[in-house]
């Protein structure tokens, strides 16, 4: 099985957060490569990344100071939401303010931040939790998000912030809790219910990329249980998102993947087997906490409007949203 099995136009629309018709228009204009399997259009993940890269490099420098963003440091995946508006009232920050993470709730947060009196227009960078903390340490982004489970302590995020940002005082703010589990075919025909089931010779797995929170959970669990990764068929096959692995299972190209419950609700022919509740947190440097955009973010996270919008999306436990977890 190829790790980058083609996605449908609907799946690509969800990945890029655009309409299905826009996907067809991009294909028609030759901006997004595609191919056909019978009568159905398919797009490879690598071509989605190429389209993102092309979109980034085509942004006019008159609209934004590219040197200020330091594109060479950012590399892939793409930074999105660039536009010509640089400043909003009450903020000294330019449009190189970057929020790192992959969950759709960050799109909601970015929109609320733009509308806040002391907010600004932020960029999004779609990389995994571990790499996001590394980029925060390097000073390439302003906000990281993480759902990194530590097998030794059973604690999310705090141990990783201490290790990956040594000597950098940080503040961890809780976003939401989500349920992680197995994506299997509807009806769970192979009765996959435990981590040990992944080692069965009749089970084929599709994995996530190194550095994302799901991959850390998988590797920590396997290590703690004592399961060698070599015993799992498909362990070395990787995809770049919850949606990509879920759709791989839905198409029958794999028997199992690991991801959050919300995505399982969006993909047909998928059944979700819950395994573990996780914490999804936001991490900022302590020196930034009193600066206008960061204060605005805290206000947004604790606002009724923001929480009601997430509640409408579904799949989130909002019990402690906006609370400061710890200052490691």
From TrEMBL:
Chain ranges of the Helix-turn-helix domain: 7-54
InterPro entries cross-referenced by the UniProt entry: HTH_17, PBP_domain, SinI_DNA-bd
One of the Pfam families matching this protein, by short name: PBP_like
Organism, as annotated: Clostridium frigoriphilum
Record-given protein name: Helix-turn-helix transcriptional regulator
PBP domain residues: 111-301
């Amino acid at each position: 099985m190829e790790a980058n099995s083609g996605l449908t136009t609907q799946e690509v629309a969800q990945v890029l957060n655009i309409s299905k018709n826009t996907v067809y228009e991009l294909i028609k204009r030759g901006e997004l490569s595609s191919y056909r399997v019978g009568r159905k259009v398919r797009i490879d993940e690598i071509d989605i990344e190429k389209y993102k890269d092309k979109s980034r490099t085509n942004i006019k420098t008159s609209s934004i100071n590219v040197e200020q963003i330091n594109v060479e440091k950012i590399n892939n995946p793409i930074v999105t939401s660039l536009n010509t508006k640089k400043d909003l009232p009450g903020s000294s920050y330019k449009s190189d303010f970057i929020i790192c993470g992959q969950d759709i709730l960050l799109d909601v947060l970015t929109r609320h931040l733009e509308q806040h009196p002391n907010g600004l227009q932020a960029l999004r960078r779609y990389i995994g939790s571990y790499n996001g903390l590394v980029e925060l340490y390097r000073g390439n982004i302003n906000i990281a998000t993480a759902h990194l489970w530590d097998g030794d302590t059973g604690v999310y995020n705090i141990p990783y912030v201490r290790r990956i940002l040594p000597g950098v005082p940080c503040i961890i703010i809780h976003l939401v809790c989500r349920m992680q589990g197995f994506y299997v075919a509807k009806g769970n025909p192979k009765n996959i219910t435990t981590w040990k089931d992944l080692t069965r010779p009749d089970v084929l797995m599709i994995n996530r990329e190194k550095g994302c929170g799901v991959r850390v959970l998988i590797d920590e669990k396997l290590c703690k249980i004592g399961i060698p990764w070599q015993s799992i068929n498909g362990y070395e096959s990787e995809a770049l998102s919850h949606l990509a692995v879920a759709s791989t299972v839905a198409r029958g190209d794999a028997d199992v993947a690991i991801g959050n419950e919300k995505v399982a609700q969006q993909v047909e022919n998928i059944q979700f087997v819950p395994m573990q509740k996780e914490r999804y947190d936001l991490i900022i440097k302590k020196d930034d906490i009193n600066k206008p955009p960061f204060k605005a973010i805290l206000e947004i996270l604790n606002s009724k409007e923001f929480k009601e919008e997430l509640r409408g999306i579904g799949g989130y436990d909002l019990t402690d949203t906006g609370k400061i977890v710890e200052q490691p």
